[in-house]
Amino acid sequence: MMLLSKISDPIQYIHHHLRHLQINLKNLKFLNNERIDTFWILNFDSILFSFILGTFFLLFFYYTTKFISLKNPSKIQIFVELIIEFVNNNIKDIYNTHNKLIAALSLTIFIWVLLMNTMDLVPIDIIPYLLYVIFSIPYFRIVPSADINITIAIALVVFGLIIFYNIKNKGFIGFAKELTIHPFNYYVFYIFNLILETIALLSKPMSLALRLFGNMYAGEMIFILIAGFLPWWLQWTLSVPWAIFHILIIFLQAFIFMTLTIVYLSMTSKKK
To answer: Is residue 270 very low, low, confident or very high in pLDDT (cuts 50, 70, 90)?
Structure first.
């Protein structure tokens, strides 16, 4: 079994932990060691854990709202209020116009990304081992934000909102002008301006997706390397300090993703 043979074959152990549980949409069957010759493949494990964590977030906040008390708030209510106040203060500092969506969107992105990042602190062998023993599932990764497909999907939603609010607030003509007459307002440079502004526009979702993916993938890789190359009784000497430092990265990446989303959306209401 892979989990027991990792010391003698750490390379195979690392490759095993970097493989997703994938499903072929053409025949709805999970892939094992088959050669992938189609585009219609989904990383089932990333989607499943994204859904579970998103559902947990919604149920937790819904449960909290059912027992709100102004005179005698519970510890859970105080905890949720601190999170909401933290997100709300950041929105007030960055986003100056009224928008009903921005608060809910920012809170959802911050908590959801934070929960996905936090899965990186779960010992990497536990869940794959249990799934292998119980269901004979050969591969499983539990950190959705370490999957480029998940981070790009979230970033594309933000990108869609950027385009939508640009057109809504400035009009289609105003948005088109913004792409063509800046930074050089002269007809000779219109094509050049369009190329520059298009690159700047496309760089926003790419920066969101790649920054989150890169940090979380690197963090997961370090945990895998520690588990793959060190005996179990020595792993804590590196994994514990790295986990403590990684808590900062986990929180910081969720905060950066939320803050950049607010900044990008706030730019849609400003006319250059």
So the answer is: low
Residues acting as catalytic residues = 207, 211, 215
CB 142 within 8 A of CB 49: yes
In degrees and rounded to multiples of 5, residue 99 shows phi and psi of -155, 120
Torsion, CA 109, CA 110, CA 112, CA 115, rounded to 10: 160
Predicted TM-score (pTM) of this structure: 0.90
Beta bridge partners of 24: 29, 41
| End-to-end CA separation in angstroms for the chain | 61
Question: Which tokens hold the place of 183?
Answer: 């930074």
24-80 pLDDT tens trace? 898 888 888 777 778 889 999 999 999 999 999 999 999 998 888 888 899 999 999
Question: Taking the CB of residue 123, how many other CB atoms lie within 10 A of it?
Answer: 12
* CB contact set of 129 (below 8 Å; sequence gap of 6+): 3
Find, among 270, 57, 111, the residue nearest to 103 by Cα.
111
8 Å CB contact between 260 and 208: yes
